Amino acid sequence: MTLVLFGGPAHAHDPIFGLGPHVLFKGGIEVATEVHQEKKGNERETELGLELVYGITGDWAAGMELPYAWKEKGSESTTGRSDVSMFTKYRFWRRDTLGAQESAAVLLKVKTDTGDENATPTLGTGTTDTVMGLAYGNEGRKWYRWASLRYRRNGKNDAGLRRGDKILFDLVGGIRPKRTGYLEPDTVWLLELNGEYGRRAELNGAKLPDTGGTEWFLSPGIFWTKRNFAVKAGMQIPIASGLNGNQEQTDYRARLVLEWHL
């Protein structure tokens, strides 16, 4: 999610779909625009987001996400604001060696109930949800490795529906085919394994049978940088599914991010 320097002219990267440990430098500002699209059966949702991040210290950053969504479900479609999120990340461990860096961080994110309530299909979830995460990264001049674990605690809406909590697990590898200096364009190719386990949803305390289960994705992507500008792009391709009851499986998810660091 951020770009910093370590061990000379090497860029620090984060995964596209997983969680990475990197934070902004003290006083740094990140501005990012993001397009995310997901298709599942006859539902398609495209979200355009603006992300703002500030480096409080060299190991602690905080920010917010402002999304606008387009949603289609069968013959119905709608556009409008989606749920605003606020987050903070703290890097509690870092070890630098010649041409490499290891680090670990924790994340806390709160998704607020601020989506357009009058839209049909609905935008946002109608609940306040919390995400807690732990991330590890090992980045060298050529090879990259990341691992992360997140837990999403979902709230209950006004109708008494509580979507099932989720556990997300990520393993990521990356390679820089050509070593470059800071002033030169830099390319890293990524391959992620993303797993999701969801508990069954509950309506007024009763579990709903056609909810929850597991999905696994293989996600190729690319991270291209030039000085303080970066482009991230990737696609999640479903490879295994164990959803409960009668549910539509995910067809694909795609993400494109443009980042500037000031």
Explain how this protein is built:
It is built from no helices and 18 strands. It is mainly beta. The strands form three sheets. Strands 3-4-5-7-8-9-10-12-13-16-17-18 form a twelve-stranded antiparallel β-barrel. Strands 11-14-15 form a three-stranded antiparallel β-sheet, with no helix packed on it. β17 (229-243) and β18 (250-261) form a beta hairpin.
Q: Can you summarize the main beta sheet?
A: 12 strands, antiparallel, barrel
Strand arrangement across the biggest beta sheet: 3-4-5-7-8-9-10-12-13-16-17-18
Query: What is the count of structural domains?
Result: 1
> Count of helices?
0
CATH level-4 homologous superfamily: monomeric porin ompg
Shape: globular
How many strands appear in the DSSP assignment? Answer: 18
What is the CATH top level name? Mainly Beta
CATH architecture tag: Beta Barrel
The topology string of helices and strands comes to: EEEEEEEEEEEEEEEEEE
Taking the alpha carbons of the first and last residues, their distance comes to 14 Å
Percentage of β-strand residues: over 45%
| Helical content band | under 10%
Write the CATH fold name.
Answer: Porin
Residue runs with pLDDT of under 50 for 5 or more positions: 1-11
Work out the radius of gyration: 19 Å
- Structural category is mainly beta
